[in-house]
Write a structure and sequence with these properties.
- The chain is mainly beta and 266 residues long.
- It folds into two domains: 116 residues, no CATH class; 111 residues, Porin, CATH 2.40.160.90.
- The chain contains one helix and 17 strands.
- The strands form three sheets. Strands 9-10-11-12-13-14-15-16 form an eight-stranded antiparallel β-barrel.
- β3 and β4 form a beta hairpin.
- The two termini are 23 Å apart.
């Protein structure tokens, strides 16, 4: 994993922002007390300049909680760039202004060829930090239920350390509105059970039960793209949020090529 990323004093400094409405779908686990994802706010100047309405994230104690676009946080100036796993890390260091010292630790990745991000956050790097939250946020939600079946290659993130990403595959039968699969690494295996696909409010989403040993949780996610080319979601263990997982992945191509999170920025 890369060393702590060097942040400039411009990080999370907002100039001329206002709230915008956008077709953004998102969800996150844990208490909404500090970090919150959603549609980004407009920024008129500076390194985070954006028209708004993109996948974004904000810290309630910084800039009145206004959300910056994830795309603006992927530059080497902001995050130091992605590591070899395609994961970006943002956290305070000796160069961080005092007003930003409580922004916590961000890890996030972007799904290839999609304006969709997933990751995790906590106030500290401790694996036992109870503030741990996972999230996903994306644009261009799938609005029409496909009729085919597909397999998605999926990457999961939880308490990211540089070598503990989860991987797996989800099998989807759109005609039967069913989804199942699993995520695993050397220490954890999480199974999706009783998965269903939903089509309410012109959005194609899914839910399932999660099982990790004797621990039970829930899964919530969304398909993105005209043909449901990618998906993203979260696994939530209400009894222990330190175990929560975010995930994202893409539909396998006809050649069964694996498509995972990349360093591409919007």
């Amino acid at each position: 994993m890369k060393n702590v990323n060097k942040l400039t004093c411009a990080l999370f400094i907002l100039m001329g922002t206002h709230t915008v409405q956008a077709e953004i779908h998102f969800n996150q686990s844990g208490p909404l007390t500090t970090m919150e994802v959603g549609a980004s706010d407009a920024v008129n100047r500076g390194p985070h300049q954006s028209a708004g309405g993109e996948p974004g994230v904000g810290i309630k104690t910084i800039g009145n909680g206004a959300k910056l676009s994830f795309a603006s946080l992927t530059s080497p100036r902001m995050s130091g760039g992605a590591d070899s796993n395609g994961v970006y890390t943002i956290q305070s260091n000796e160069r961080t202004p005092a007003s930003h010292r409580d922004m916590g630790v961000f890890h996030f990745a972007k799904i290839t060829d999609a304006n969709v991000y997933f990751g995790d956050w906590a106030k500290t790097t401790s694996a036992t930090d109870a503030t741990h939250q996972t999230y996903y946020v994306g644009k261009d939600v799938t609005t029409t239920l496909p009729t085919d079946s597909a397999t998605y290659t999926v990457t999961g993130m939880s308490q990211y350390s540089g070598s503990n990403l989860l991987s797996g595959s989800f099998d989807v039968d759109f005609s039967q509105k069913k989804i199942d699969g699993s995520l695993a690494n050397s220490e954890r295996t999480v199974e999706l059970e009783n998965g269903n696909i939903h089509t309410a409010n012109s959005q194609v989403t899914f839910s399932a039960d999660a099982k990790e040993g004797t621990t039970s949780g829930v899964v919530e996610g969304t398909f993105f793209g005209e043909s449901a080319n990618v998906l993203a979601g979260i696994v939530v263990f209400s009894s222990d949020h330190t175990k929560d997982i975010s995930f994202g992945g893409a539909k396998n191509s006809s050649e069964s090529e694996e498509i995972t999170a990349s360093t591409d920025a919007s």
